[in-house]
Amino acid sequence: MKNFFTEKKDYFLYSFIFLLIILIIFIPLMRNNQSLIYGNGDAFHQHFLIFTHYINSLKESFTNIFTFDWSIGLGNDVISQFGYYIIGDIFSYIGLLFPSDKLNYAYSLLIILRMYFIGFFFLFYCKNSKKTYKYELIGSLIYVFSSFVFNAGVVHPYFLNAAIIFPLYILATERLLQNKNVYFFSLITCIAFINNFYFAYKLIILCFIYALIYYFVEVTEKSVKDFLLKLKTAFISFCVGVMMSCIILLPVICTFLNVQRVGAVDTIMTYDMSYYLNLLNGLITPSNIHWSVIGTSSICLIAIPVCFMHFKSNKRICIYFIVLCAILMVPFLGSIMNGFSYPTHRWSFAFTFIVSLMTIKLFEMKLNLSKKDYIAILSFLIIYIVLALLQKNMNVFVMTIFALIFLFFIILKNMQVLRHNLINLILYICICINIINLGCQTYYQTQFYNLSSTDNQGISQDFLSYDNSLKRYQTVDNQIEELDTAVKYIINNDQSFYRIAVMNNNIANLSLLYNYNSTSEYLSLTNGNIANMSYSFYNSDYSISKSLKQLDNRTRFSTLLSVKYYIVDKKNISMVPYGYVQYAHFEDTYIYQNKNFLPVLSAYDSWINSNKFDELNAVEKEIMIMNSAYVDENKIVSVKKNISHIKSECIGFKVDKSSELKITDNKIVVKDPSKKLVLKLDNTFNKEVYLSWKNLNFETNNKQLDYAIKLKSGSAVVKKKIEDRYRSQYYVNTPEKIFNLGHEIQDNKIIIEFSKNGVYSFTDLSFYTTSMDNYEGEVKKLNKGVRNVKVEKNYVSANLSRTSPSIIQLNTGYSVGWKAYVDNKAVPIFKCNLGMVGIEVPEGEHDIYFEYNIPFIKVGIIISLMGIIIWTYMVYLNRKSKR
Question: Where are its TM segments located (predicted)?
Answer without folding.
Answer: 12-30, 105-125, 137-170, 182-213, 234-259, 289-311, 318-340, 346-362, 374-390, 396-413, 425-444, 856-877
